[in-house]
Amino acid sequence: MFGAFFTGILIAAGIVIFIFIIMGLIASSSGKEKIENIKLYNERNKIPINSKMIGCIELNSEKYQTKAQYGNKMLLGRLFNIWKEENRIILCESFNINKPKDLIAVKTIIPIENIKFFTREGEYRVDNIVQGGGVNFKGAIVGGVIAGEAGAILAGREKITTTQKEVDKRQTYLYYIDNNQEKRIVFFSESYDLLLELIPNKEIGYIEKHKIVEFKKSNDTQEKSIYKDIEELSNLKDKGILTEEEFTEKKKMLLEKIQ
Prior knowledge:
This is SHOCT domain-containing protein. By secondary structure, this protein is α+β, with helices and mostly antiparallel strands.
C-alpha cells in the first residue's frame, strides 16, 4: 500500500518537473525569438546600439492612451528609442510585439538648433509613512506573565517604523520649432535625466543662466565702449575742439546709457 503511495508521489513529481522543463524551454524559445525580432526591427529602422529608451506621453498633439513598462513602473505612454546623430535628435518608436517586426517606423527628427528648451514640471514630494505604535495583545500577555504590569506595557507596544514613498507626478516637456510652428513632446518624468545627458545646453535652467551671463558680457562691452568715447571727448576738449559745456553735456548723455 505504502509502496503504491510513494510510487504515485514520484510519478506526480516527475510530471511536475517535466511541465516546468517544457515551460522553461518555451520561455527560452520565446525570449530568443523576441531578441531576434528586436534586432531585425532595429536593423530595418537603423536604430543604433547606443540609443536609449525614453517614455513618451504625447508627441505633436497625439496623446498615447496605452500603458508601457518603463523600468519597474507601468505608465501611460509609448516607448521610443532616442539618440543624437550629428546635430539632430532622433526619436523612433521602439519594437512592439503587437506590430510587425519588419515595420518601417516613422521617425521624428529634430535639429538641435530648433530645440527651444526642455523642462520638468508638476508635483513631486516624498511622503513619510509611519506604521506601528499600536497595541500588541499577544506581546502584552507574554510580557505581563514574565515581568508583570511594566512588562505588559513594554511588550505590548508595537514597533514604530517609518518608510518613505516617492510621489512623482511631474512630466518632462521639450519645445521645438518645426516649419515655423512651435511643437512640444511630453515625456515621462524620468526622461528629464536622459535629455540632460543628450542636450544639456537646452535645459531651461542652463539657458536662463547663460542668458544672464551673455547680458552681463554685453553690458560690460557697452560700458567699455562708452568710457572710451568719453576719453575721446576729453581729448577733443583738451584740443579746444569742444567747449567745457559741450563736453559735459555729451558725457552726461553717454553715462545715462549705462545707469
